[in-house]
Amino acid sequence: MKTFLLRAIAFIALLHLSDGWRLFKNGRRYGGNLGDPDKYRTEFLANQDVEDFWFTQKLDHFDPTNNKTWQQRYNVNRQFFKHNGPVFLMIGGEGEMRPKWIQKGAWIVYAQKFGALCFQLEHRFYGKSHPTNDMSTENLRFLSSEQALADLAYFVTRMNEQYNLTVNNRWIAFGGSYPGSLAAWVREKYGHLIHGSISTSGPLLAKIDFFEYFEVVRDSLATYKGCDCVEAVQSGTKQIDVLLRHMIGQRTINEKFKLCDPVEKSIENPLDISNLFEGLASNFAGVVQYNKDKRDGVALSIDDVCGAMCNQTIGAPVTRLAEVNRMVLESSNQKCFDYKYDKMIDDMKNISWGSSGAEGGRQWMYQTCTEFGFYQTSDKPTLLFGDKFPADFFVKQCSDIFGENFNQNSLSNAIDRTNIIYGALKPSTTNVLYVHGSIDPWHALGLTKTDKNQPQPTIYIQGTAHCANMYEPSDDDFPQLKIAREEIVRFLENLLKK
Ligand SMILES: *[C@@H]1O[C@H](CO)[C@@H](O)[C@H](O)[C@H]1NC(C)=O
Ligand SMILES: *[C@@H]1O[C@H](CO)[C@@H](O)[C@H](O)[C@H]1NC(C)=O
Ligand SMILES: *[C@@H]1O[C@H](CO)[C@@H](O)[C@H](O)[C@H]1NC(C)=O
Ligand SMILES: *[C@@H]1O[C@H](CO)[C@@H](O)[C@H](O)[C@H]1NC(C)=O
After folding, report:
1. Do β-strands 384-387 and 373-375 pair in parallel, antiparallel, or remain unpaired?
2. I need a surface site. Which of 299, 321, 409, 467 has the fewest CB within 10 A?
3. Whether the CB of 310 sits within 6 Å of ligand 3
4. Atom 6 of ligand 2 has which residue's CA nearest to it?
5. Which ligand ends up closest to the CA of 159?
6. Mutate-to-test residue for ligand 3 from 313, 320, 323, 324, highest number of ligand atoms within 8 A of CB
7. Which of 3, 53, 48, 21 is nearest to 344 (CA)?
8. What is the mean pLDDT of residues 67-73?
9. In angstroms, rounded to a whole number, what is the distance separating the alpha carbons of residues 132 and 140?
């Protein structure tokens, strides 16, 4: 019954998504980048309900005259905790906290091994952790990585009191994607509270024009052996460009790509056209970023989309691109392909916690506009998907959604500031292990090498996707992923000996 309910909720979420929202946008998956962990290990808590607890958190850590508080959601797992054992903290990120993680995933396997007490804390402004009564731009000024890190510091301090923890109970932070960055930064900023971290797939360099993203997408597609998948995608994209130039071609595009609104009316609107191309590129990005990870549910892989791109029986390259688009729409339960810029902006402008954007789309957009950039543009040599979605296209979205104060200038300041306060690719962290996968486009903004200039330990896993090492170990993991898991355990062993 419970499973059925969860499925039903997932289904509703997807139906919701079909109006205006895409499954994958700006390098972020609907609902957040970390999926649900797959496969229950029956010896664990398995079918028990996860209880939500609420922590009274300060609204503004940087203004002592502001005494407002709000309720932050967290989960606890005491099942494996041994006296003097460590405390593991899973950091929540750019989507609703997924309760299953308190019972499952690689970190729970480590918790069992090390006798750890486990917590996971939802990130402010995501999921059910609402610091303010809506998401107005005015209220979102309390949404930042710095506030989130201070949330973690307060949480750790109060849990130490509540659970009678001592210096022998060392806190280790875990996080994947943006929380991977937070895991590194919380050790850097609050080293007296956090003993060490495993930072998975975390971008460390803030950047407006993240053109490298699609370079990795290209390289990842190029690993497909069946045919030149990259070339097929390029030809298909060029054919779309040509078809868009005349009325018959435009109608062909409407039909082939199942557009929600006919493109004839949009042809004079470069923002719609940018959004169309960006959406088609995201079809591939969303597949590459999660290629064969172990999240719960079925997902398309590079083999699936390149299999279609290489299949000449389907038709010309543009028709094969349309087939990939159909596969992606089907996998996310969407009836048509939505590319209207104004519609997207209107959805993103909704400040209500009940709106579809409240799953995190609006909040994450705010963080990209005020802290990180990370815009996956078509600006560089790849030309995999043409050149239709440059950095300006994303900067304009900041202004259109949050107001004219959010512009090129403020974004440059924001990026500069983020890199200065955290140290970008030269962080001063100790006891932090950085883990990335070579297929995952986000590795391009993270630490992947250990050398003289960069003494921090890293693991760069050939062939794995975003956050792959965080999911439950399984027999069919790549050998190199199995080795990485062993290295992570050794790192934790050494950390807990220190
Ligand atoms: C919060 O601050 C206001 C204004 O300074 C004050 O009146 C109120 O008593 C404070 N509340 C608490 C719980 O400290
Ligand atoms: C912590 O210690 C206090 C006082 O000794 C006790 O009442 C409380 O139950 C303890 N809490 C836990 C979680 O063990
Ligand atoms: C190629 O596409 C055709 C038509 O959709 C399909 O019947 C066939 O199974 C595909 N071939 C491969 C190798 O996937
Ligand atoms: C925002 O979303 C809510 C919930 O879906 C909806 O009721 C409301 O009409 C939307 N507001 C605007 C301004 O579109």
Report:
1. unpaired
2. 409
3. no
4. 164
5. 2
6. 313
7. 21
8. 98
9. 8
Whole-number Å distance between alpha carbons of 112 and 115: 5
Task: Count CA within 13 A, CB hemisphere, residue 363.
Answer: 31
- Determine contact, residues 33/101, Cβ cutoff 8 Å: no
Using one digit for the tens of pLDDT, what is the confidence trace for 374-425?
A: 999 999 867 789 899 999 999 999 999 999 999 999 999 999 999 999 999 9
Q: Are strands 196-200 and 171-176 parallel, antiparallel or unpaired?
A: parallel
The per-residue pLDDT for 39 is: 52
Is the per-residue pLDDT at 439 higher than 50? yes
DSSP string, 328-385: HHHHTT-SSB---HHHHHHHHH---TTSGGGGTHHHHHHHIIIIIEEE--S-STT-EE
Read off the pLDDT of residues 281-340 as tens digits, 9 standing for 90 and up. 999 999 999 888 877 666 899 999 999 999 999 999 999 999 999 999 998 888 999 999
For residue 313, the tally of other CB atoms under 10 A from its CB is: 5
Judge if the beta carbon of residue 227 lies within 6 A of ligand 3. no
Domain ranges of the chain: 30-204+424-497, 208-415
Q: Is 129 exposed, middle or buried (0-12, 13-18, 19+ CB in 10 A)?
A: buried
Q: DSSP readout, 438-479?
A: SS-GGGGGS----SSS--S-EEEETT--TTGGGSPP-TTS-H
Confirm or reject: Cβ of 313 under 6 Å from ligand 3: yes
| Whether the Cβ atoms of residue 34 and residue 467 lie closer than 8 Å to each other | yes
pLDDT digits (tens, 9 = 90+) for 19-47: 556 778 777 887 777 777 765 444 444 44
By the 8 A CB rule, do 489 and 113 touch? yes
Q: Is the CB of 314 under 6 A from ligand 3?
A: yes
Catalytic residue positions, numbered: 177, 440, 466
Q: Whose CA is nearest to atom 14 of ligand 4?
A: 350
Q: Which atom of ligand 3 is nearest to the CA of 308?
A: 14
- Helices and strands per DSSP (H, E), number in the chain: 15, 13
- Could you confirm whether domain 30-204+424-497 is CATH 3.40.50.1820? yes
